[in-house]
Amino acid sequence: MKRVVLSLGSNLSERRVFIAKAASAVGGKVGRVLRSSSVRESESWGFSSSPFLNQVLEVETALTPEQVLLATQQIERSLGRTEKSGRDENGQPVYHDRTIDIDLLWFEGESRCSDKLTLPHPHIAQREFILVLLIELFDNQIVAPFKESFVRMLETLQNQSEKNEL
Questions:
Q1: Cβ proximity of 87 and 94 under 8 Å
Q2: Residues 6 or more apart from 111 whose CB is under 8 A from it?
């Protein structure tokens, strides 16, 4: 069994209901949910939209990373997600509103980069709303393959934001 960390996000309709249904489905299709963060509201990241509700789950699974990805995509579709994020003609990310978004943030013992899956998730250190939720689960612990704690990543991100505002 391996540990996997997933993030859940919703910014359409009954956001809290979609988060709860997705967390339940993860428990049924991916593995046993060991811990979950609180559900917190954040501004959209990467595009202008209504606020998101977000939650992070730590799950114990017998699945491979690819199987987890397929299972989470099935859950997204079952909860009404119709569009996945993509890239425009210049290679820039294009994001959409969504009933539910499930990102695979980290998979125990796995580091990889492919067209379909990058582990750990490449934007963890850039997303304050994710770091705050990860800190709820891992506090100041350093989780491999990261070289610093999520607390330290958040401090670095906040310091960069302050410098950019000056």
A1: yes
A2: 119, 120, 145
Question: What is the distance between the alpha carbons of residues 69 and 112, in angstroms, rounded to a whole number?
Answer: 13
> Above 80 in pLDDT, residue 164?
no
Can you state the angle between helices 150-165 and 128-138, rounded to 10 degrees? 150
Say how far residue 38 (Cα) sits from the centre of its chain. Answer: 14
| Residue 79, pLDDT score | 92
Indicate yes or no: pTM above 0.85.
yes
What's the CA gap between 131 and 53, in Å, rounded?
A: 14
Task: Categorize the per-residue pLDDT at 121 as very low, low, confident or very high, splitting at 50, 70 and 90.
Answer: very high
Between CA 155 and CA 161 the distance in angstroms is 10
Cα 114–119–122 angle (5° rounding)?
Answer: 90
Calculate the alpha carbon distances from 100 to 78, 138, 152, 163 in Å.
Answer: 10, 24, 29, 33
Q: What pLDDT score does 88 carry? A: 56
